[in-house]
């Protein structure tokens, strides 16, 4: 299982945690917004190296204190947790500093830029009985959770393959490839749905705009069960698309994030009769109803913020924890290695199955 809770902090009395948001570039303001909208968390600090960003947001949220130095936050004994939305290469160092200061820590995906560093963060959080969470937002999405329920209930039958497209025009990152930027979303969803690690991974792509930084990649993951998943990632597309197709022996599903009908279940398939003679060979095509289930209209980012606040105040952790977050880092590393070696298949070996307290 890749969905274990991860580090297990000691139970604690219920509190409204006081938190700080560090990193106010693209994603940080979104995290700040949902945290402010919740009644179970109290935002006290914001931090960014660019004073123009903190100035703009303190005008919107005048109750917060602003700083350009993380030390100001870490020195504040009132702060229970820190939310990090900084560049990927800084995740390990900043998360380690926060936990060394005794702060519960939320890190935007991916958890770190290398598997050993992710493992070190998890082990440190476990020893110190601190909450460590990674921002795999889509795991809190009602449509993603609904597809998980369909798979677990066996309604799709044996899953043959999955195909995912996560493309848009921008935002090009300066320090990581599209694999590290967009890939963790699909990797985390696949691991959550399947509870099975891939055995091999291959990636091809190119650096179309910025030399040395791949902005398009096609990643193929093979699983021990025989399932194949293909993931298309790109910062170079005429429109934004977040679409996954799941083909099973009983039914098929199309999940398209951001649409009015996020899930469509197709009662369609192909039945094969093993022939005794060549003349008996035939396929039977089944085409039944298409169902679009009614789903809760809850913002995943807010649900994720609530899970972090709840973990700090009560010790209750989300089911999809740090084993999955570490596996996502491992898949991104392996995909990058394959890309650097011309699409060579990378054997993944044994997965990081679980994290225990």
Query: What is the CATH C level class of the largest domain, in words?
Result: Alpha Beta
Helix content: 25-40%
Instruction: Report the CATH superfamily of the largest domain.
Output: Dihydrodipicolinate Reductase, domain 2
CATH architecture of the largest domain: 2-Layer Sandwich
Shape: globular
Order of helices and strands: EHEHEHEHEHEHEHHEEEEEEEHHE
Order of strands side by side in the largest beta sheet?
Answer: 14-13-12-11-7-10-9-8-15
Q: Please identify the structural class as seen in this structure.
A: alpha/beta
Total strand segments = 15
Instruction: Give the percentage of residues in beta strands.
Output: 25-35%
Regions with little confidence, pLDDT below 50 for 5+ residues: 351-357
Query: Biggest sheet, in brief?
Result: 9 strands, mixed
């Amino acid at each position: 299982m890749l969905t274990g809770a991860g580090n297990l902090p000691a139970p604690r009395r219920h509190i409204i945690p006081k938190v700080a948001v560090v990193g106010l570039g693209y994603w940080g303001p979104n995290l700040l917004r949902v945290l402010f909208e919740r009644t179970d968390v109290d935002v006290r600090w914001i931090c960014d190296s660019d004073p123009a960003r903190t100035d703009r947001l303190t005008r919107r949220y005048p109750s917060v204190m602003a700083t350009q130095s993380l030390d100001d936050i870490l020195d504040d004994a009132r702060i229970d947790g820190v939310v990090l939305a900084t560049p990927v290469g800084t995740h390990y160092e900043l998360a380690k500093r926060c936990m060394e200061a005794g702060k519960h820590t939320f890190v935007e995906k991916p958890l770190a830029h290398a598997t050993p560093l992710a493992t070190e963060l998890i082990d440190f959080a476990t020893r110190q009985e601190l909450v460590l969470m990674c921002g795999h937002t889509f795991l809190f999405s009602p449509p993603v959770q609904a597809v998980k329920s369909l798979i677990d209930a066996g309604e799709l039958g044996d899953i043959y393959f999955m195909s995912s497209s996560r493309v848009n025009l921008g935002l090009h990152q300066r320090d990581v490839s599209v694999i590290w930027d967009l890939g963790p979303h699909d990797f985390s969803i696949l691991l959550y749905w399947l509870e099975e690690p891939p055995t091999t991974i291959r990636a091809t792509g190119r650096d179309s705009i910025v030399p040395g930084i791949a902005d398009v990649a096609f990643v193929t993951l093979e699983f021990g069960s025989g399932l194949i998943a293909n993931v298309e990632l790109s910062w170079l597309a005429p429109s934004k698309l977040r679409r996954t197709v799941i083909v099973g022996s009983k039914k098929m599903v199309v999940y398209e994030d951001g649409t009015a009908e996020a899930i469509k279940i197709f009662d369609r398939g192909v039945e094969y009769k093993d022939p005794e003679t060549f003349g008996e060979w035939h396929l039977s095509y089944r085409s039944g109803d298409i169902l679009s289930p009614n789903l809760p209209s809850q913002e995943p980012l807010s649900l994720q913020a609530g899970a972090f606040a709840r973990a700090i105040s009560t010790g209750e952790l989300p089911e999809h924890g740090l084993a999955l977050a570490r596996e996502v880092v491992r898949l991104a590393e392996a995909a990058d290695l394959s890309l650097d070696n011309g699409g060579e298949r990378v054997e993944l070996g044994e997965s990081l199955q679980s994290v225990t307290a």
